[in-house]
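ok trying again, last paste got cut off:
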Amino acid sequence: MLNLLRHTLPVVCLFVINLPVWAQWVKPKVYIDPKGIRYSQQQFDSIRTANTGKPIAQMDVIQKENETQITFEVLAVNPNDLFKAKWIGKLLPTFSLKDIQGNTYSNSSLKGKLIVINFWSTTCVPCIKEMPLLSDLMAKYRGRNIVFIAPAPESALQIQKLLARHRFTYTILPQAQTLFSALTIEGYPYHFIISPTGIIEDIYTGSSFNPQTNEAILDNRLVAAIDKALENH
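nice, full thing came through this time. structure:
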């Protein structure tokens, strides 16, 4: 999945060691479009401003001896919007997965309940950072007709090693590659809200962070969507 460049890119800084004999040099960034045209940081900032509202996708990052090359493309349509348009209103693909304790979860076993799904991975840093927030979110709805599940592509053993260090109270479904493939999910995290009849009602991608502290924060859109779904069902 394309890694969208949101808001601002990191500023290239030159850190000078306070010694008279040497200084550390930071390689400049060069931005390259699909035609191979090179742009400086300032020129790229102008491109980004001129295309406000359009997603800019980072295709690749190549470290050269004297520069960092970043290939990019201005997209006409946000791929996340295309993904949502493809799946919202459709039935969740058929699945049958076991949790870490060996209990089976499937479309039929969850029928009649509102389902909140967090597609994540043990290799996804934003996923790990939002685990405590999602655990608190789940606690808020305790006793309601709602289940929270978290499919992941890794094995139960890999996941258990991570859970020894991080709190996550969703029902975790390891080795869920088949469901990821059925939905063509290639990045993390994804949050799905499924109606009691199995219809995908809402999808949210990515994680939210406080720009001042860089700490994970809960996406209020997800909370509002869950509340709305509970009211409707």
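cool. The chain has two domains: 3-74, 79-232. The radius of gyration is 21 Å.
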